[in-house]
Write a structure and sequence with these properties.
- By secondary structure, this protein is an alpha+beta fold.
- It contains 6 helices and 8 strands; from the N terminus they run E-H-E-E-H-E-H-E-H-E-E-H-E-H.
- It has 2 domains: 3-76, Alpha-Beta Plaits; 79-177, Alpha-Beta Plaits (2-Layer Sandwich).
- The strands form 2 sheets. It has a 4-stranded antiparallel β-sheet. Strands 6-7-5-8 form a 4-stranded antiparallel β-sheet.
- A hairpin with a 3-residue loop joins strand 6 (127-131) and strand 7 (135-140).
- The longest helix is centred in the middle third of the chain and has 20 residues, at 78-97.
Length: 180
Amino acid sequence: MPQHIAFLRAINVGGHIVKMDALRALFSELGLANVRTFIQSGNVVFDAPGKAAALERRIEAHLLAQLGYQVETFIRSPDEVRRVDTRVTAEFGAHLAAGSKLYVGFLRDLPSAANRSQTVALSNDVDVFSFGERELFWLCHKNMAETTVTGPRLAKALGTATTTRNITSLRKLLATFVVR
């Protein structure tokens, strides 16, 4: 059975707290198998047949019904996450070695050309934005506390929802939970 990774947006923000054992149970209620969670930021690895888009809709509907608030879900295969990691290493490895941080924003679809241009235009000496297939790459040369780009400003430029993970967390998730 295919393995999937769900990246949940805003599962534990705004006063909402979902314990990881409860989150695993919610996924299991959908008939998803071998459900595991990674850290408290809404990363769920599971096995299930089906296409990512259909699984995203099923999970979002179930979480809304059970939790009472919208939790946008972005599903990737382990191979897709590995390709992201490979690209990060090739394009940003020297920056990461020098101490910069890289965040990967998972998107449903690539934003329009206009929204991509607006997002890339936010780049400056601290923050550099670029796009992958369905990912936003945010290279931050300083601490996130020193970034000049706020979440609402980025969301407006993107024109679509995203959920962001640090590349270090993604690498740990791959190393810990994902079947080769």
